[in-house]
Amino acid sequence: MSSAKTTLHRRRFLKTALSVGVAAVAAPTIIPSSALGRDGAVAPSERITVGGIGIGNRGTYDLGCFLEQPDVQFLAVADVKQARRDAVKKIADEHHGNQDCDTYRDFRELLGRDDIDAVLIATGPNWHATAAMYAARAGKDMYCEKPCTKNIAQSLNLVDTMRRTGRVFQVGTQRRNLPHFAFACELARTGKLGKLKRVYAHPAGMSALMSGWLPAESTPDPKVVDWNMYLGPASWRPYNEKLLDGFNFEKGGGLVGGGVLEWGSHCVDLCQWAVDADGQAPVEYDPPANKQIVARYANGVELIFREEGWMPLGSCPVRFEGETGWVETGDSGKLVLSSPELLAGREVAEIGGYPATFHVRDFLDCVKTRSQPKGNAEAACFAHIACHATNIALALNRSLKYDLAKHEFVGDEQANRLRSEALREPWQI
Amino acid sequence: MTIQMQLVRVLAVSLPLLAISAATADELFNTNEAELIEVLKTGQPAEKAIACKKLAVFGTKDSVSLLAPLLEDEQLASWARIALEAIDDSAADAALRDSLAKTKGNLSIGSINSLGVRGDDAAVPLMAEALATGIKSNDAELVDAAAWALGQTGGEQAIGALRSAIKNEKGAVRNAAALGLVLAAEDLLAAGKADEAATLYDEARAADVPKQRKLEATRGAILARGDAGIPLLVEQLRSDDKKFLQLGLGTARELAGAKVAETLVKELETAPADRAALLIYALADRRDAVEAPAILAAAVSDDDSMQLAAIRLLARADDASHVDALLQTAADDNADVALAAATALAEMPGDRVNGHLVELVPTAKGKKLAILLNLVGKRRIDAIDALTSSLNDADAGVRHAALAALGATVSAEQLPLLVKQCLTAHDPSDAAVAWRALKAASVRMPDRDACAAELAKAIANASPAAQAQIVDILGAVGGGNALQAMGNAMNDGEDQVLDAGTRALGNWMEVDAAPLLLDLAKNAKGEKYQVRALRSYIRLARQFKMSEAERAEMCAAALEAAQRDDERELVFAVLERYPNAESLRVAKAAAKQPKLRERAARVAEAIEHGSPGN
């Protein structure tokens, strides 16, 4: 054995960390008129050809956001379920007014097409990271739904792979491209709240979850539901219809993930942005106490998960508190500020309902410019590490310290063992 | 404890986890290796699977001999590898290596993958052998796995096997070998062995491999060389192949050093417009200081893609020449470009920008003046004289910009100036802008009670329409004074004042509006406003933090005030949402009223027994 198992294969990650930061100024969110033809349509050479992988409920919403962009041409869908393949083909063909959307059971066939620039990955969380790595190796840019990794090792691998392959990656954290969340994060990040003390995230429950093995049922015809491909990188178990809920199946490593990962990949992601921690994560994690989980960044800022005590501002609320002010916001689109002075003359558009349209546009613009989108791989990596580490502290029910340089828990072998998990054969990332 | 007793305990722990379930930490990990080993010996496959998962946490070399046979089990092999990949003992490596002689197909691939994850140097000969076997048998998946594992593990022998394979006649083999070589090169580069890494990247780049492998190798070859990689970078930036151009644009952002920015600027001289725009975006994403007339020229060019890219770059630094170029662009006929430039100007860092903008105001006219005044507002520059002198400008755009800027910048002492503009505006469009400005100014006042007092003064002599506007603003301001002023205005006010006031109270963010709302619910002129007020009152009870007793009291009062079943139902929903003794008391009291008896009894039942009440 070449190295202790407490060392992740992270050498490339550590050394290739970007020397050049992400631009502070937002990318344009418009298509230059020079890219338009005489009829206002986007010239074929300017179009981005897209394929979909695993397009269920959420994916169908995302697909709608892609299709409303004039420079998108959706060419193919891959899904293990025939009903979904058929449904997506119908949507795409009706939108484009043709019969050109091809369907695949195995996403690798879709990735093998040279005429597809980018993919939308909206499988269940079990597949997100693995499909993303295969897409990167195939040279596709990608918009991948969250949570996009199952454990810490996959999170590091994700950013490493996207850099190595030169891909544009956007995780489906669409709130980064909504004005009220962006403004709240900006207030915290730029010191308008004074020295930042606490950031609050809303988990969807604080239980660890584990997927298991239900009684065997008759396995369907693979043409209808390909159970083997559905399991993919998850360990084998017999077919049971209840496990076909991809949303809840195998979300994360040794632990399914629970609410900390499910909502955390949104709320913690925003907190990370507020703390200006897209390249870092908290270094201390406490187990639950008083209906809260507290983690701490190296600079002392506390990341607090709590289910209660929120203002009525809709789902996915976040709150940032500094020494001189605070801000709270949520999916209603409304902002509540400790002082109206914090608005500083700004008019923040109130967009409720967390639409992904702006996030998709950000991704498409970056596909063209090769800039980093708001939900880029590095931001996703560290937000997910924060969630996974919190889940591990939750599962082990003890305080943990995390070494960001080595990406390992300090003096806790059991916690370190939960940083990664073997994939079912033949899958590897 | 007997073994049988232990097993019963193990199963009691394991069985709840066979399904997707929420679990406490104790349920998940209240076990030990000995218990889990017993499950491996005697359990059913489902139990063994979960035991493997837990052995990833608890397993030691003592578990390895029982996990090893599972590597030959198609159903349990990957479960076993979950444990074996995690166990920090050479016995786990040995078990994985030994399995290669006993397995084939996917099972063998799984073990190779795990050896690659563990970076097992001792397994390199077996990985190389697997690669040779895969090549010979045309097993593409075995080739992929072996090449990946060799690349992951690295070292002279592994690289040698990959170097040999990249010359293979089969394209799929060359592809897999190139991936492995790039992985090995990445490790070398990370270890500071840039020259060795560059050699491997070059070999992969030169081979007959798919474009994506060449792209990865080219990126690495540039980064490994640093400044010496710039010629290769330029080659990509000039490529006619879209993928290589994209690779160059991405790598130009990654490669450190001032020479990269210089190179990008130089490339602008000869690049066509669409490519130049992409180069400017790359420059904008780097942190280097860029002084280039070409960027300024791009901002005011005829090509909107160039303009948008230049705007992004120019917005980074508070240079006067940048401000001038952006101002010119902000007046562009293309609305999207103009908006992008104006937004950039509003968000540019630095006080020097503010000073430069104010200097330009006295000589500006028309559209340019309106842009400047808008920026004064958005940047919150203290320039009250410049703004007030523009309030009577003949150009409506200028007047509106000045009013909006006043809204963004006036102090509390200057608020009457804005109130006056609202009450005396002759032009309806001026009035509309003035009211918006007054609202913007009012909601940002640090002392909201003082602000509300100032606004309240204006109500006395205002028209009903203006009173409604002020009441709406008071609602946005919030606080005790605002609430009192709103109450007074609605008490004496016309229909439109009541309309504005009850709407504003529907969005009130504090519980202190409850008494006023309850009073309006009972006494407001017009059923419409009574109902609206009552619903807002119930909203406070539903959404806001308060003691159980206070919430119950509000619910009781709302039930008493409600004239319709719709509002009563909203109250019952609040009681069900907060099931406690106080809510139960209110529900039971309501159940004594004949018209509420049945529904209230169901609510009480739900609170007492936790069942749905409706």
Query: What's the level 1 CATH class of the largest domain in chain A?
Result: Alpha Beta
CATH topology of the domain at 256-349 in chain B: Leucine-rich Repeat Variant
Give me the CATH superfamily of the domain at 256-349 in chain B. Leucine-rich Repeat Variant
Radius of gyration of chain B: 37 Å
Q: Helix/strand/pairing class of chain A, anyone?
A: alpha/beta
Oligomer: heterodimer
Write down the overall mean pLDDT of chain A.
89
Assign the structural class of chain B, choosing from mainly alpha, mainly beta, alpha/beta, alpha+beta, or little secondary structure.
mainly alpha
**Nearest-angstrom radius of gyration of chain A?**
21 Å
Q: How is the largest sheet of chain A built, in terms of strand order?
A: 14-13-12-7-11-10-9-15-16
At CATH level 2, the architecture of the largest domain in chain A is 3-Layer(aba) Sandwich
Strand content of chain B: under 5%
Largest interface: A-B, 90 and 120 residues
> Which regions of chain A are unreliable across 5 or more consecutive residues at pLDDT < 50?
1-6, 10-30
Mean pLDDT of chain B: 91
Assigned CATH architecture of the domain at 256-349 in chain B: Alpha Horseshoe
- Give me the strand/helix succession of chain A: HEHEHEHEHEHEHEEHHEEEEEEHHEEH
CATH H-level homologous superfamily name of the largest domain in chain A: NAD(P)-binding Rossmann-like Domain
User: Which consecutive residue ranges of chain B, at least 5 long each, have pLDDT under 50?
Assistant: 1-22
Explain this structure to me?
- The complex is a heterodimer of chains A (429) and B (614).
- Chain A has 429 residues and is an alpha/beta fold.
- Chain A has 2 domains: 14-174 and 357-376, NAD(P)-binding Rossmann-like Domain (Rossmann fold, 3-Layer(aba) Sandwich), CATH 3.40.50.720; 177-206 and 254-354 and 383-417, Dihydrodipicolinate Reductase, domain 2 (2-Layer Sandwich).
- Chain A is built from 12 helices and 16 strands.
- In chain A, helix 9 packs across helix 11.
- Chain A is globular and about 60 Å long.
- The two termini of chain A are 20 Å apart.
- The model of chain A is unreliable at 1-6 and 10-30 (pLDDT under 50).
- With 614 residues, chain B is mostly helical.
- Among the domains of chain B are: 256-349, Leucine-rich Repeat Variant (Alpha Horseshoe), CATH 1.25.10.10; 365-444, no CATH class; 463-544, no CATH class; 546-613, no CATH class.
- In chain B, 73% of the residues lie in helices and 0% in strands.
- Chain B is built from 38 helices and 1 strand.
- In chain B, helix 15 (230-237) crosses helix 16 and helix 34 packs parallel to helix 36.
- The longest helix of chain B is centred in the N-terminal third of the chain and has 20 residues, at 171-190.
- The radius of gyration of chain B is 37 Å and the shape is flat.
- At the A-B interface, helix 1, helix 6, strand 8, helix 11 and helix 12 of A face strand 1, helix 2, helix 4, helix 6 and helix 7 of B.
- Strand 8 of chain A pairs antiparallel with strand 1 of chain B, so a sheet runs across the interface.
- Chain A: Residues 49-172 form the Gfo/Idh/MocA-like oxidoreductase N-terminal domain.
- Chain A: This is Glycosyl hydrolase family 109 protein 1.
- Chain A: Residues 1-26 form the signal peptide.
- Chain A: GO terms for molecular function: hydrolase activity, acting on glycosyl bonds; nucleotide binding.
- Chain A: It is an enzyme of class 3 (hydrolase).
- Chain B: It holds the Pfam family HEAT_2.
